[in-house]
Amino acid sequence: MEKKNGFMLFTLLLAFVLMLSCAGEERKKVKQDVLHIAAAANLSYVIPELVDVFEREYGEGAGMDIRVTKASSGSLTAQIRNSAPFDLFLAADTGYPRALYRDSLTVGEPVVYAAGIPVMVYRPEVEGDVGVACLTDPSVEKIAVAQPDLAPYGKAAIEILSGSGVLQQVEGKLVYGISITQTFQHVITAADAGFIAASLLHGEGGRELKKAGMEWIEFPLDAYDPEGLQQAMVLLDPSNATAVAFFKFMQGEKAEEILKKNGYRIE
Q1: Which residues take part in binding molybdate (predicted)?
Q2: How far is C-alpha 143 from the geometric centre of its chain's CA atoms?
Q3: 196 is in an annotated binding site
Q4: Could you check whether 35-115+229-265 and 117-226 share the same CATH topology?
Q5: Which of 74, 126, 174, 213 has the lowest CB atom count within 10 Å?
């Protein structure tokens, strides 16, 4: 009787182990079928084109479920530190991916894939062609800027205002967005002027700005720290073959062409 019970217990344990093994394989398969990209918010209007071209270039990725989460680089970094299931991180600077690399949360060092360009957009009644000095005019009541602690473009905006000697005069007018895309929405809906990424002048963003009658100016490289807007990426999951392929694709000519025509500098 005891032998019979022991055999039954062994059989049940074996079945349980096999069940766990199958479940693990299934979870692994599901994970392998999904490429989850964490993308800085300034890539909002260009990432769909990058994904489309990647899928055409790499037939193996055509059936892949590619998911993109867009937010400020600071917010995405916090999510990665909290074990968010991203396979690849495309940041708006080099600082956040470098910090993840130092903490051994990435596969290899960050790779720069483009350089961002900050622009000031303004309503037609604002004399923006004279530069940021126009922001001191009493008629300009709200200036949209991304949170400099979270978004590199916000930091660049503060550098431009400070370098021009008008930061103290306009500080009380600044309204902050938690990402560059939220800042863009402030520009469209409520602000008289604002600082955004040149990439948002293209695609749907460009059409919204045109519809709102907004104009824009760019700044020389010595108006801000261009290294602060070098955009870097890091691979987070080397076991995901499509993530590895997309990582390589972002370093190729096709991706460079797409980024260049959508408001980025390629160095």
Answers
A1: 73, 180
A2: 22
A3: no
A4: yes
A5: 213
